[in-house]
Every structure is written in structure tokens, then in C-alpha cells.
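Section 5: illustrative case.
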């Protein structure tokens, strides 16, 4: 028997498997399960986007593209960021098209981090942030956020975790899993902090189009002085219901984008041409479909928020993304116990908050990118469960 511990890379061994997948796997084997677990739109990609891809295939677009992605797509991305984000990037030098935000995040970390460099990561947060940091040889430094502060991050929180090795701040608002957003004034304080301590900021704005109740999404790199120190990540998965197409992008200083492109050209070569063609269509003609999906998420958000309050689970009213993060501490269970027991007895799948960092303990994440009827039924089942366990 081989000693795999000595064979497999220590960096890989140090990364725990995602706490999200485990629950999908259990749920996939059960019948009659309602899943609020998946962070994925329940809509199919709008037809005009799918059709553009079909047409592209008919026309014979089946080749590699430029490493950085099709110039036509980069031009559309630049236009979109200038129009909606208020910051302009040069499509020739400042933009890299990637295989999802997932790849962009990995490239950003590998382009920036030397062994031992520290990355401040406000938690609870998307499960890949810590893993990508560690796999790139960096040290992930969690910075807890609290429900009392609506899961927003402050300079004081960050300051408490700053060391001479801190190089990067990784933020993701609107936030997965809490639904928190940061206002312009919150972000200006973070920008001042980044400037003062000379940090590079990776801003994952994949949920930037998904804000509710009149909340404004502020593109971090549009703030004074931030363009040169920010890597702005965005993609099509959530806004345009395109998770399976695997297409995202990074925007930033030409030097950083060139470094990321160097890794990308040797590892990925380019993002699929089929998905790039579809992404061009999404930016040219997809907005009205995207807005429709966002208003449907907003309707569901109202239903699920009221539902949780009625069954006695306190929660923060989410302002962005499509997740809600109820507080289950009143049941006396850990979030993992709650999720497992709920799945076993009521057949509702959700994700324990602890999967998103230690400070997510005591909460569970539910996605409301789920049909309304399913949300109603899930709330009824969770209500049953909570009645039995609330102390
Ligand atoms: N960033 C956040 C915050 C996410 O929630 C997700 C997916 O759930 C991703 C990035 C990955 O997105 P993509 O499908 O573009 O790789």
C-alpha cells in the first residue's frame, strides 16, 4: 500500500473538501428532496443567448481564441463595466476572459502570492476563497463579520488581523452566503484602508447585478485610487443563468492581467469559444432577461424572508445575491447537525453555515434561486422541524 500522504502535495492535503458538495451527494440519493442548497439559478439561459451559440456552431466557430479571449467579447465587457460600473478598462490590455470566476480567482491568487503572503478574507464567504489562497501558497486570514453589523466588514475588523505579511484583501459583495451588501460609504472606508496599508484588493462582484430594494451596487475599482490596486472579477453564471457555460473575466492593471494571462495560456489556453460567443450575446441583448430573473429572485426573497421569521428563525434581510442565512442557534444544534437532521427527517437540503467559515456556525444557507412553490413547501417542512427542536 502506497503512503499517499507522502505522495500528494501538502497544499492539497491541507484543503478540506467543500462542505457544500457533501449535502448535494446525500440529497441526490434521496427521493422527494427540496433543495435550497445549490447556488445556481433555476432558470435556463435565455434563448437568445443559447441561440447565438447554436448559430456560432453552425457557422463553424469551433477553434481556439486569443488567450485573453475574443476581442469582441472584451470590448463588450469594457463597455458594460464603463456603463454600469463607472470605470473604464482597455479591452486590449486590462481584461482577461476566464473559465468562470473560479478560474479568475485562482489565477489572481497565483499571480500575486509568494509563499507565506497573507490574504484577509472576510467570513462567512464563498468556499473557494480560502482554498484558492492555500493552493497558491498563501495564508488565508479569516476576518469574521457579524449579523449585528449586517455581515459587513469594517476597517477596524480588518486592522485587527493585519500583519506585515498582509498583501491582499479579498472581498465578495453582494455576499455569498449572507446576502450582505456594502454601501458606497462602507466601501470608501475599505478603500482608504487598502490605500493606507498598500493592499491589493480582489473584488468578486459576480452577484453585482443581483441587488434588491433599491440597493446600489458599487464597483470597488470605481472608487478613487482603487482601479490600479483592484482585480475586479465578474462572470455570467449568476446574472445570466449561465453556470454550465463556464465563463467569467478579470479586469485590472495591465501588469496583473498580463501575469494572470501567462498562467492562463499555459493551463487553460483560452475559454471555450462557444461560451464566449454566448457571452457576447448576453451583454448585447441579455439585460432585459437578466432584469426579469432578478425581479423574480426579489419576489422569492420576500417570501422566504417572511417565511423564516414566521417559523421563528431570526434572519438578516438579504439585500443581494440569492441566499438567506437564518440563525438556527435557538435549536441548540450545530449547523451541521441541523442540516443533516433536516435532510434526513424532512427532506430539505440546505448548507450548514460552518461550510463558509467558522463564524458561519449557528447559521444555515438557503438559496432562493428556487421555484416559489418549492420555497413554500420547504418553509413548511423547516417550520415542522424547528417546532420540534426549538428550545
Ligand atoms: N464567486 C462566488 C461568490 C460564487 O458564489 C461563485 C459560485 O457559486 C463563484 C464565484 C464561481 O462562479 P463561476 O461559475 O463563474 O466560476
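Designed sequence:
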Amino acid at each position: 500500500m502506497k503512503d499517499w500522504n507522502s505522495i500528494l502535495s501538502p497544499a492539497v492535503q491541507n484543503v478540506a473538501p467543500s462542505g457544500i458538495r457533501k449535502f448535494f451527494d446525500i440529497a441526490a440519493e434521496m427521493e422527494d428532496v427540496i433543495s435550497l442548497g445549490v447556488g445556481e439559478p433555476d432558470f435556463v439561459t435565455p434563448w437568445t443567448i443559447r441561440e447565438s451559440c447554436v448559430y456560432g456552431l453552425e457557422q463553424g466557430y469551433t477553434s481556439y481564441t486569443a488567450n485573453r479571449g475574443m476581442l469582441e467579447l472584451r470590448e463588450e465587457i469594457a463597455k458594460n463595466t464603463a456603463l454600469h460600473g463607472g470605470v473604464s478598462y482597455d479591452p486590449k490590455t486590462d481584461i482577461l476572459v476566464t473559465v468562470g470566476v473560479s478560474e479568475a480567482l485562482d489565477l489572481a491568487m497565483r499571480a500575486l502570492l509568494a509563499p507565506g503572503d497573507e490574504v484577509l478574507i472576510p467570513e462567512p464567504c464563498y468556499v473557494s476563497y480560502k482554498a484558492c489562497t492555500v493552493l497558491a501558497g498563501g495564508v488565508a486570514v479569516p476576518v469574521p463579520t457579524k449579523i449585528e453589523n449586517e455581515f459587513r466588514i469594517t476597517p477596524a475588523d480588518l486592522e485587527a488581523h493585519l500583519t506585515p505579511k498582509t498583501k491582499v484583501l479579498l472581498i465578495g459583495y453582494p455576499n455569498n452566503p449572507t446576502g450582505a451588501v456594502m454601501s458606497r460609504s462602507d466601501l470608501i472606508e475599505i478603500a482608504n484602508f487598502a490605500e493606507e496599508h498598500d493592499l491589493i484588493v480582489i473584488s468578486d462582484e459576480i452577484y453585482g447585478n443581483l441587488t434588491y430594494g433599491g440597493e446600489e451596487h458599487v464597483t470597488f475599482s470605481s472608487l478613487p485610487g482603487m482601479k490600479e490596486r483592484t482585480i475586479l472579477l465578474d462572470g455570467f453564471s449568476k446574472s445570466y443563468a449561465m453556470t454550465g457555460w463556464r465563463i467569467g473575466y478579470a479586469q485590472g492593471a495591465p501588469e496583473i492581467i498580463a501575469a494572470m494571462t501567462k498562467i492562463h495560456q499555459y493551463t487553460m489556453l483560452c475559454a471555450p469559444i462557444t461560451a464566449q460567443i454566448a457571452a457576447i450575446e448576453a451583454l448585447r441583448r441579455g439585460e432585459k432577461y437578466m432584469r426579469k430573473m432578478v425581479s423574480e429572485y426579489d419576489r422569492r426573497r420576500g417570501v422566504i424572508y417572511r417565511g423564516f421569521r414566521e417559523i421563528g428563525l431570526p434572519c438578516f434581510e438579504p439585500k443581494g445575491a440569492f441566499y438567506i442565512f437564518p440563525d438556527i442557534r435557538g435549536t441548540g444544534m450545530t449547523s451541521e447537525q441541523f442540516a443533516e437532521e433536516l435532510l434526513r427527517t424532512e427532506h430539505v437540503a440546505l448548507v450548514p453555515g460552518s461550510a463558509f467559515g467558522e463564524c458561519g456556525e449557528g447559521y444555515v444557507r438557503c438559496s432562493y434561486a428556487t421555484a416559489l412553490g418549492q420555497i413554500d413547501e420547504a418553509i413548511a417542512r423547516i417550520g415542522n422541524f424547528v417546532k420540534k427542536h426549538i428550545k
